[in-house]
Amino acid sequence: MVARPIVLSARDIQTMPEEGFLEGTTGGNVTWKTLLSSSRTSSDTLTSGLARCAANGGHLKCHRHSHPEIYHVVQGHGIVTIEGRQQEVGKGDVVFIPGDSEHGIRNEHPEEDLVWLYVFAADKFEDVVYRFSEHGTKARL
């Protein structure tokens, strides 16, 4: 597939199905919508999507992957942990996560979902292998 400009409308994004980790994996109860990935769109070099942790306990467990990642929080507040350090984040904040850094995020707000745009330096989402800290397992997407 040859890369070309892509514009996704808000309506396109709204109607995309939410994805999540397979039942029985250790990934947490986070969901996401893959926006750009060469396996789905005529893009390359970058993969992006919107992730959501539900209010009052939604979380993505601590994990690693070789690809660097960026989070841009677009809704809510949460706590991101990178290499054991916790930091509060909220709407408008940007987080850079170096490749192979252990990280996770959780939402402790009782009423508002935490939503962030994520970007990987990878052609497709399937290239990003999550290695979860708990029991050293790899999650299947």
Q: What does this entry look like structurally?
A:
There is one protein chain. By secondary structure, the protein is mainly β. It has a single domain (25-133), classed as Jelly Rolls (Sandwich), CATH 2.60.120. The chain is built from 1 helix and 11 strands; from the N terminus they run H-E-E-E-E-E-E-E-E-E-E-E. The strands form 2 sheets. A 6-stranded antiparallel β-sheet has the order 1-2-3-10-5-8, with no helix packed on it. Strands 7-6-9-4-11 form a 5-stranded antiparallel β-sheet, with no helix packed on it. The protein is globular. Residues 135-141 have low confidence and may be disordered.
Name a few traits of the molecule.
single chain; 141 residues; mainly beta; Jelly Rolls; five-stranded antiparallel β-sheet; 40% strand; disordered C terminus
